[in-house]
UniProtKB/TrEMBL annotation:
Coiled coil: none annotated. InterPro entries: DUF6571 (IPR046701). The lineage of its organism: Bacteria, Bacillati, Actinomycetota, Actinomycetes, Actinomycetales. This is DUF6571 domain-containing protein. Residues 284-306, 520-551 are annotated as: Disordered. Residues 2-549 form the DUF6571 domain. Residues 527-537 have a biased composition (Basic and acidic residues). Pfam families: DUF6571 (PF20211).
Amino acid sequence: MGPEGMVDLAYTINQQRQSQLESVPGYDPNDPDTDYGVRWDRTNDAWLSAQATLSICFGTATNSSAWTPKHRSDYAEELAGLVTDEDQPYYMPLGFNLLLEGANRTAANTAELDGEAAQAGGVFSKYFLQDLGNAIQAHEKTSEGYPAWREMMLKTSSPEGSIGDWDPMAGILTAMGRQPDAALDFLAPPVDDRATEQTVKVDGTTWEWLQGRAWDSTSFEALTAAFAGASEHRQLTTGTKDERAAWITEQAVVDMAGRKDGLWTNTSRQNAAVVLANSMQEIDESANETENSRKDSAFNGSLPAGWEGYHPEEVKKLLQETLKDDVALQTVSDAAGRYTSSRMDSSLDELAADAGYQEAYDQVAQTRRIDGQLLGYIQGAAEKGRGDAAAEKDATNQMILNAFGKGLSFIPGPQSAVAGKALSIAESYALDAAGDALPSNAQQAQNEAIDMQKEAEQRLMVETYVKLDQRGFLPPGAYEDEDGAPYTDKDWMKPDREGKLHIDADTIYSSPDNMREFTGWINNDPDVSKVSRDARESTAGFNEGVKRGKG
């Protein structure tokens, strides 16, 4: 099917959806036990599923080997022509966006349809998306007056959607959010393709053009999706990708932090959370009021390129806005846990091969305060942004702790990767939300009030011992009772295939009894308790972080 047919079909599906929704009866004699809201949702989800399927199929086609580079380029040119020629049918911009976006504008590309998690839209060829973006940019820069798509919008007898539904860049940027290579190369291309990571300079003309655009909440969702996609390249490489990704995420955070409350939706918050999760090194700097240098430590040297400037106020403000959404809150908290885990691993990597328990403990304990400060900063920003009452505050704190703990235990062993791939974190929590795996605030509020200081201290303490256990730094007596026999009464000490006992963090967290028993083991087992314990450092750091996050 040609471009016009595809766009026409996308528009027709949406028209049918709206028509069917308007005709959902208040009472259905064939389904008397199902209320109106449920039947409305089923109808809506069925048509959104069709919209998503069309986008997915189209995206697959653009990546197919059956499409030669010339065919792909020609098809993109014809497709762009439908929204850059005002003599085309007026609804072409609407269908254009629906075809590229699918069911929504999430960078994580997930949707809840009929109670199930589903893929929201297509994943398109990066070259196809770049051709579309360049065509729209060239058209608008050479147009006198309104661009064609605005003129087409003015031809409607009655309003259909918002400006963002008509702006073709909304569809393109959404699709780029799901194709990180396209997002990075479009938003932050190098001035010279031959540049190295030491010499690269970013061509900011596209970003300047986008900055001058009028954004509503719909198109802003798309912009944040593209930011999220580009931020995925914040991983240490030998090329220029992480330098360019650092540049565009810095621009993005400063820009998003200045946006007004009325522009934000939960979708844009979730997209922005991906950017923040991929910028954990800058959140860490803001939480600890430092500017880290790659030369300071092996850990800092393992991080991707950082921002050129220092923006603690913008980071804090954006966190406070973004963390109002549950999926966003968990995405950032999980990423913070992974970052903390990697910092602990890096500190242990620096030890000599013959290092003992005392030396290993002291080494990993050095990060306790700044790790606590990072978690406190996130909690403080969430508390300020959400403005929770007491019960909701407990639920929020529980979500932070669960996600942070999940991140802490996610990357085992030495040389763990620190940055990047926050889209996969966001996707996992979005899928959980779609499957009702995330407890609601009402359910969480039934739990006991959460002492975040104590919980943060415990999480970091448990992770310290898990890592010492994984690396073999705990003395043999730590796994034995006073008679020299292996512990058999501790559920959180589990044997491996060779029968050797190891600490299982999930089991410790699973019940207060296990946590108390673990704490007693630290205090009383003579092989473990002989080292100094600096848990108070994580508590002091956490308290300071909370103040800064709220500030």
